Every structure is written in structure tokens, then in C-alpha cells.
Amino acid sequence: MRNLLSLGLIILLLSSCASTQLVSNWKNPDYVIFDASKVLIVGMTQNEDARIDFETKLRREFRKRDVEAMRSVDLFDVSFTNSAKSEEELDDVEQQLLDKDFDAILFTKVIGSEDFTKFRKRMSEIDGLYGKFRDDYLEYQPIYYETDYYDKYTVYHAETSLYCICVDKERELIWRGAIDITDPINIEKTVEEYIKLIVFALEEQDIIFRKETKDEDHESIGL
């Protein structure tokens, strides 16, 4: 019930954004809260400037909350993202992240969608317990290197997914949010709106980020 109320609150407060809107929000029911100490931020888009801007600004939000985060642009070289990768190669990447003490991946991808009915049906049927970063990446990696990927869309759909990197376990999906971006013109503004949505949604779901309580607010102003 709390998750439903939180989702309703998020949509109510943020649907006023004309260009960016949260349309779906799913949290793994096995996790009441989820904490991470080192997170890899992955933004999947062909627009390199937008990717850098997005990953940099989102990393800033993590650092504000004393959570270590690294941008994928600092970890993946150009040769990694400009061609298709196999399951084995992505398995190796996940193991390398585990060896480097990462405990979560926040993966954002921008994908075009013409049929929102089918999309919402897919989101409602998603089985989060079987979601894996590897499978998510494999399905959408053409975003990086197919130059006509977005050409026929005027409304973009984006998804942000949080995966746990756990020892001796498959990479579990912890949270997924779906966001519609309507005809973006100012990329910088769109990135800022998107990040606000992500941060707000994670705070509401007690995932990595936490909302400040009234007592904490009072302490911060010396009351």
C-alpha cells in the first residue's frame, strides 16, 4: 500500500512538468529499503554530450548524499560502446565491477515508443525478480551505434533501472522507473528535470537516498 501511495504522490507532484513525466514505478517487494555505498551510473544514448551531462549531474546528487558514484564514461572506453557486446563480455564487466567493490548499477536508457498501450502492458507484466543488467543492456545496446534509432519518434521514453551487484547471486533488479519525454528541445533542461524525477522517486521508495525528516530540517537551521 505504501508503494502505491508513494507512486501516486510522485505522479501528482511531478506530472506538471510539460516535457518530462514519470509514468511507471516498480520496486522489488523483497527490499523494504536498499542501501549502496558505490554505484556505477550508466547513461545509454548516442548523444555523447547529453550522456556526460546526465552522468555528471546524477553523480553530483549521489555525492551530496555521501554515496560514492562513478560515471560510465570514465569506466567504458569508446570501443566498448560503439559495437555490440556478447553475454560473456557483459558477464565479465559485471564481475569486474564486483571486484572493484561496486554494489549497484543505475542504468538509464532512452528508447523511442510509438505504442504506449503495449509499453504499459509490458511494464505491468514485468517480473522484476528475473531482471538482469546484462539482459537489459543486450536488448537496448543498439542505442549506442545505430544512427537511425530515434528518427521516427517525437515522444521519447526513458527507463532508469537500479541493479544490485551481489556476491554469489544474479544481478537483481531493485527498482525501475519509466519516464516520458515529450519533444525535448533544451537537452540540459530535460536532463535536469529527469534527474529530479529519479532522485525524488528513489527518496520516496527508500532506495539509497533518504528524505530529510522534520527533526533533521530543524537541526540544519539550528532549531
Structural class estimated from helices and strands: alpha/beta
Quickly count the domains: 1
> What is the string of SSEs from the N terminus onward?
HEEHEHHEHHHEEHH
Give a quick account of the main beta sheet: strands, pairing sense, barrel closure: 6 strands, mixed
N- to C-terminal distance: 34 Å
Strand content: 15-25%
Q: Portion of residues in helices? A: 40-55%
Total beta strand runs: 6
Strand arrangement in the largest pleated sheet: 1-6-5-4-2-3
Number of helices: 9
Low-pLDDT runs of 5+ residues are: 4-18, 114-124, 217-223
Please state the CA-atom Rg, rounded to the nearest Å: 17 Å
Overall pLDDT confidence:
76
What global shape is seen? Answer: globular
Key features of this structure:
alpha/beta, 223 residues, 6-stranded mixed sheet, 22% strand, 6 strands
Walk me through the structure.
- The C terminus is likely disordered.
- A hairpin with a 7-residue loop joins strand 5 and strand 6.
- Helix content is 42%, strand content 22%.
- The two termini are 34 Å apart.
- The chain has one domain.
- The chain has 223 residues and is of the alpha/beta class.
- It has a 6-stranded mixed sheet with strand order 1-6-5-4-2-3.
Summarize the structure.
With 223 residues, this protein is of the alpha/beta class. The chain has 9 helices and 6 strands. The protein is 42% helix and 22% strand.
